[in-house]
Design a protein that fits this description.
mainly alpha, single chain, 142 residues
């Protein structure tokens, strides 16, 4: 078998995108493994592999890969959002909320803002601890 080249890695990456779109996340992971072995610094390939792990319900692998992406790109709103979905799917809602809110703060797209559930925080209680909305002076509305 011929030695992989940068061109074959690009082809594998594009094929992995197609496999993921065709709902074959395990096939995508197999293709991306060689790409990432050859180019471990490639954040796009790691993000795609994280998505494939998520699609294959390999939540711990997806979590680790999304975290690695965020170590390199802490301002990647999509990676925060996808990590939050992964944590949510693993029934780790409190951890997920933090990343949903970071995603919404970095990129206020409607789906990120909705997932962040900022309104839930308002309903649980304000600064006065009574659950009411505060006025401009910080006191409860009367």
């Amino acid at each position: 078998m011929p030695e992989p080249t940068p061109e074959t890695h690009v082809i594998d990456y594009r094929a992995a995108e197609q496999l993921l779109a065709a709902r074959d996340p395990r096939g995508a992971v197999k293709l991306l493994d060689s790409v990432i072995t050859a180019h471990p610094e490639n954040t796009a390939a790691r993000l795609l592999r994280a998505r494939a792990f998520f699609g294959a319900a390999q939540l711990r692998s997806a979590e680790l890969e999304f975290q690695l992406v965020l170590e390199r790109e802490p301002d990647n709103a999509y990676a925060h959002f996808a990590l939050a979905r992964t944590l949510e799917r693993a029934n780790r809602r409190a951890e997920a909320t933090r990343h949903f809110r970071l995603a919404a703060a970095l990129d206020p797209r409607p789906d990120f803002v909705e997932a962040a559930r900022f309104e839930d925080k308002d309903r649980k209680g304000g600064k006065d601890g009574k659950g009411g909305k505060e006025g401009k002076d910080g006191k409860g509305a009367e």
